Amino acid sequence: MIVAPFFVSLRVLIYSVDMRKLFIFIVAAVLCAGVLSCADADVPDVSGEDRHDPEKMAEYTGQWKRYNALGEDDSLIMYTRPLLRRSLNEGDTLTALYCGVYIAQAWMYVNQIDSTLICLQRMQDDMDRSDDDVLKYLYYCIWGNYIIKADMNYVRAMEYYQRAYRHAVATGKTTNQLSVLLDITYLFYVRSDVQGLDYARDAYELSQMEGEPIKNKCSANTMMAMMSHISGDDSSAIRYIDAASALAKEGRLITHFSLIYKVYADIYAAAGQYGRAARHYERALQYAGYADAGTESFVYLDYGRMLRKMGRESQAKNVLEHGLEISYGANNHECRKELLSSLVDNALALGNKDDVARYLENYRSYLD
To answer: Using CA atoms, how far apart are residues 66 and 57, in angstroms rounded to an integer?
Structure first.
């Protein structure tokens, strides 16, 4: 059963996207229409869960994790599309929903925020009927991440993370609990709220348990470094980020490099080591293509702030404007307010009245 209104909205969107985005929207149509119809598949006496194959799911999950580790989100979407179609044809609702959450996450990583939202909303009814705690922990984590990137609504994001954490605990796996704690820590980091240090510590303790994947250890050390830095404890921050860097190199965790180099740069900038910080900001930008738009825009924000401290306002303007372009282009709100505010202050320092008026108007509009 195809949902016609969705395809109407798809046709409207086609005119404003390039071919790569068009491909992603087409996949969205297949996914969203399919998941909606899965419960009505032509197998009235057999539920989707009854047709689920755990061995195949283990194979799929392993491949999804490999794509995630390499930052190959487009490849993940291409790999998952035939799996999705097959699961829908077979009436396997559970596998279809797993395909959905991994594709929704991939869309978010390639900055297709609108497609992520469509997918999450269209899966809601089937998700409510599922009793799979792993699936629900993933689903609500992605919802929380979406809210941070698209709306910056901390209260709503925390509500989703709390749901995710309850299901993560129910799975009995510390890895799942750790993942949610890392997301919650990042929420506090975005707010520059030192209360996130408690969540970072809990995540770090879990990451030290035997059998935890190296990427979790790397992420936990990175979050401890970030929270230590904003708490004013840069001696601890450098220790944790050194550990994260070593783990990222050992595990070839290329998607982690941009954030790690940014944290190094932030620490050096705070110490007044501007040349060293600039080199690390530049290295962070070299790997930004493997990270998401939120990380990239944060690199430009803090790089621009450092340049302002150095009295290099003209260069700061270019850097901050680039960050703002990424924020708007990816529909990412993680640090848009801070970018606009910094551009207003920078324009004042340059004495450019036209820029002051333009950025101030944008800033006020954004707050409204």
So the answer is: 14
